[in-house]
Amino acid sequence: MATLTPLKTLRARRRCLAEFLGHGVAVIPTAREQLRNADTHYPYRWDSHFHYLTEFPEPEAVLVLVGGKKPRSLLFCRPLDGERERWEGRRFGPDRAREAFGVDEAYPINTLDEKLPPLLAGCETVYSLMGQDDAWDRRVQSWLQTLRAQVRSGVAVPQNWGDLRDHLGEMRLIKDERELQLMRRAADISVRAHRRAMKATRPGRFEYAIEAELLHEFRVHGAAGPAYPSIVAGGGNACILHYVDNQARLRAGDLLLIDAACEWQGYAADITRTYPVSGKFSPAQRDLYEVVLAAQQAALAQIKPGKRVSAYHDAAVQVLAQGLIDLNLCQGTLEGVVESGAYRRFYMHRTGHWLGRDVHDVGRYVDGEGRPRRLQKGMVLTVEPGLYVGAEDDIPEPFRNLGIRIEDDVVVTEKGHEVLTEAVPKTVEDIEVWMTQTRRRS
Ligand code: GLY
Ligand code: MN
Ligand code: MN
Fold it and tell me: Which strands, in side-by-side order, build the sheet including 255-260?
């Protein structure tokens, strides 16, 4: 099967973009293969915008959309080549690609420089993923230069060069039913991975061994792999927000923070859980954990259509700041701690982000007036408050080196929201019971 999404949906996406182009032409290349070392490449991953519009999986491909009264879609891709395919894998080739991906026309990629200038001649604006890849920016310039050299023969050169990313970002922000299906699957596999990791956690094991449990679950269910580098952070490592070393030994008495999820058919999940290595929270760990959990619940209550996207962060900050005051980690009034930003010593990130093909997905966060935009049905976002308490002298001993984050993936529905990742134990009681029971059985 060539595409997972019905062709009519892919065509509708391309039509929607073509309407935006007016008398313009859009050039959307997929990602390049990236060399890892010598002649070995990183595993290939297509560009998210390109794949959203085509689902064409091969490198060295470009989608060209021509706007106007008779919109057209053209795919440029690698030609069939028996010798190269024996070494590198099968290709669609232009003819099969045209049918399988529902584009109007398809050509070998090596004809791009010849075909593009005539397509651009006479159009008002050339659109691209401007600034994403210098070499592609230069390529667009070279086509315009070719046309400029022909002006005396009456060729009209596009006068504008526009960036497609904002518009594509807005299209991708609202997920359709098919996309939500894929995101549910990404979430389900990631939930299983967290449950497996929780079950495998015990003092003396290494962070990388727990990471291996996650990766096993991703791959055994057919996911491409992690949607982003897995964070498996024991003890104070959890206070490093993007910790990816995953080399340390887990110690009894420490917490373990895992931020990991898979990519399924191009869509990411993004889950964090934090729990005790030995299965039981200390009183200080429990106190801090309960604050983060309450902050997440307060944030979730703000996820519904019409609410501003800032509301859930603000709600989480109120609860976190009050918790820090109650635990004597911040001094002063709630208003004072929030206004001064004193809480930021322990909470230095936002409470979430859009989620989709990219883990930090595309789409604006502000409306036309520059205010935080309102939530709409079909948006998907993460809700991920945390607290990160270092080991400085003024921190009471029991709170030192505690890093806690709880992160779930949430769809905005008609009347409220749906949490996709609820099935990973999250309350203190559920975690303690679950870890005791599963580890007794294993
Ligand atoms: N895993 C990346 C994030 O939570 O934003
Ligand atoms: Mn996240
Ligand atoms: Mn995360």
Answer: 231-234, 255-260, 271-276
